[in-house]
Amino acid sequence: MIRTVLLAGRAGLHLRAASRIAVAAALLPAAVTVRTLDRPAVPADSVLALLSLGALCGTELILEAHGAGAAEALDSLADLFATDLDVAGA
Amino acid sequence: MMPRCRPVLEPRGVRVREHAADRVAAVHRCADVLEELGAVHPAYREAMLDREWAMSTYVGEGVAIPHGLDRSRALVRRDSLAVLRFPDGVEWDGATVTVCVAIAARGDGHVALLSALARILLDPLRAKGLREATDPAEIVGMLNAEDEP
């Protein structure tokens, strides 16, 4: 199962955003991978792997998960990537 | 939006034999070097310390990336990097840091550098190479060369 989302964070996928997403990904019912058009798929629960994508604001992210809980896992991670995590309260 | 100029690491921004008693002292040294490079206003130091306390900048593999806060972007004079190597290690919120990559960035140009650094650290052999490198030119070469997609 695949979902595509555009990165919303104006400052790109930096350390704080990547940390927050990796923690959320580790708690999901299914393992999710993320890739860009330039970079191969990496596990969403690894901070270093997420940073390696070098994703800037507006970068297309392709999320993939399989099996039980995949849809739920993709929904919640897609929501996080589509939120500017630098905005207070986000 | 700020231009996406990528901060480039210069040999004079690399210090291979640093010592720090603790994480705070190490962040101060990072701020010292960024100031020496003319990269930041002196007040950037406080932002780096605040950012470090808000959440550790440890990224794994013995590497931390001290930097400022969103609100301290105006204190950056020139997007720059510094690499400080602490051969004896510095206790860092439960981890041991031997390399600090200090970042001063106004826009998102440093995201490419983070990507380059992360790809080095995900490769155990190259991560070890970065931690143990003692030649500034070698460190500059590793980080700047990794910048290609």
Automatic annotation (TrEMBL), chain A:
Gene source species: Pseudosporangium ferrugineum
Keyword Cytoplasm part of the UniProt annotation: yes
Localization: Cytoplasm
Cited PANTHER family: PHOSPHOCARRIER PROTEIN HPR, PHOSPHOCARRIER PROTEIN NPR
Main localization (coarse): cytoplasm
InterPro entries linked to this entry: HPr, HPr-like, HPr-like_sf
Cross-referenced Pfam families: PTS-HPr (PF00381)
Taxonomy, superkingdom: Bacteria
GO CC annotation terms, alphabetical: cytoplasm
Domain HPr: 1-88
Protein name (record): Phosphocarrier protein HPr
Record-linked PROSITE patterns: PTS_HPR_DOM
Gene Ontology terms describing biological process: phosphoenolpyruvate-dependent sugar phosphotransferase system
UniProtKB/TrEMBL annotation, chain B:
InterPro entries the record matches: PTrfase/Anion_transptr, PTS_EIIA_type-2_dom, Sugar_PTS
Domain PTS EIIA type-2 stretches: 7-146
Pfam families (alphabetical): PTS_EIIA_2
GO molecular function, one term: protein-phosphocysteine-sugar phosphotransferase activity
Any GO BP annotation: phosphoenolpyruvate-dependent sugar phosphotransferase system
Any one annotated GO CC term: plasma membrane
Coiled coil, from the record: none
UniProtKB keywords: Kinase, Phosphoprotein, Phosphotransferase system, Sugar transport, Transferase, Transport
Record function comment: The phosphoenolpyruvate-dependent sugar phosphotransferase system (sugar PTS), a major carbohydrate active transport system, catalyzes the phosphorylation of incoming sugar substrates concomitantly with their translocation across the cell membrane. The enzyme II CmtAB PTS system is involved in D-mannitol transport.
Protein name: Mannitol-specific phosphotransferase enzyme IIA component
